[in-house]
Amino acid sequence: MTNNGTLLRTRAPHQHHRVTYVELFFDLVFVFAITQISHTMLAHFTPLGVLETALLFLAVWWVWIYTSWITNWLDPERTPVRVMLFVLMILGLLLSTSIPKAFETRGLTFALAFVAMQVGRSLFTYFSIPKSQPGWRMNLLRISCWLACSGVFWIAGGLSEGQTRLWLWIIAVAIEYCGPVMRFRFPGLGATPLGDWEVEGGHMAERCALFIIIALGESIVVTGTTFGEAAWTSTAIMAFLVALIGSIAMWWVYFHLGAEAGAEHITHSDETGRIARSAYTYMHLPIVAGIVVSAVGDEILLAHPDGHSDIKAIIGIVGGPLLFLIGTLLFKRLMRHLWQLSHMVGIALLLAMIPLAHHLAPLQLSAATTVIMLIVAAWEAISLGSKTVSDEV
């Protein structure tokens, strides 16, 4: 498909468009957003605080992944699209700076920035798609209607306080996340056929892989910063090494075989829209969340490596890798059509550690989870290095 002077990307069958520099520049805002999320979770590590931070994380991921869909359809090298991304960056920075006090004094700012990004970007795309592409135009119209409906609850929540804000934003997030599942079915407009969600698969896979790098980068920044401020005792040095090796193990589990296999599969698929919706829009959510929670666990580890692990340490140190492995298991299940045995064993081992975790020091607990992650990474690498994917399980 050629763009015929429009803002659409030029497409060819199974062609891989590289991620552009302006997309990488746009991602810098979300480096800051992920930092804000992890620090907010650590500062409000109560059941209510975790729930609130989870809602904010869902919003941050959603605004980023929607933008990745749009830059898959529109050409970021065209000036109007670049300007749109720069406007989104400004709003995204406003959104990110509001995160720590989103449930306090900056709720309305967070809500307005989020709604402006979601609805504004979708309407821009709707008017950018030529009338010769009625399917895509109708898809963006449905999306805009759904986002406008959720926006009412976002803004109403921003104008409210306390539990009212929380419940209104839960409704808003539910609307946002149900949209793709419902294919944005809307009264009078119908639902979007999956054929109208066609994407350039290699680009989508690369965009999500880069977001994994952003999340892992936050983990490394937390590790380095906290270690730099601590007294360099032998225990602190061990905690630093364990945290860093844990991040390396996560990188290995995702990138050594999974990321490339996912990119290959979606690039040569005839159902790129369905795969992008399931594997990259939804299944990457627990992967990224697991890395963010692990970063919180690393900060707890480096600050207090000795003593017994409390519930915060257990959630961060065990819960993060557990979320990550569950996400990668589901992702690779869709891409390879099999249940990755190494990942299932890793999940089982992490679950088995939970009843014992309270009796271990954070350093011991983190060392154990890191060993489990290394086992998963080595098992997968050796297994798939000596067999075909179809022979593994």
Summarize the structure.
With 393 residues, the chain is an all-alpha fold. It has helices at residues 21-43, 47-73, 79-98, 107-128, 134-159, 162-181, 201-229, 234-267, 272-282, 284-303, 311-336, 341-357, 362-386.
Quick one: biggest sheet? none
Number of domains: 2
Radius of gyration (Å): 21 Å
Query: Termini, distance in Å?
Result: 40 Å
Mean pLDDT: 89
Roughly how much helix do the residues carry, as a percent range? over 70%
**Series of secondary-structure elements, N-terminal to C-terminal:** HHHHHHHHHHHHH
| Tally of alpha and pi helices | 13
Your description of this structure?
The protein is globular. Helix 8 runs parallel beside helix 11 (311-336). Mean pLDDT is 89; it is low at 388-393. With 393 residues, it is mainly alpha-helical. It has helices at 21-43, 47-73, 79-98, 107-128, 134-159, 162-181, 201-229, 234-267, 272-282, 284-303, 311-336, 341-357, 362-386. The protein has two domains: 21-197, no CATH class; 201-391.
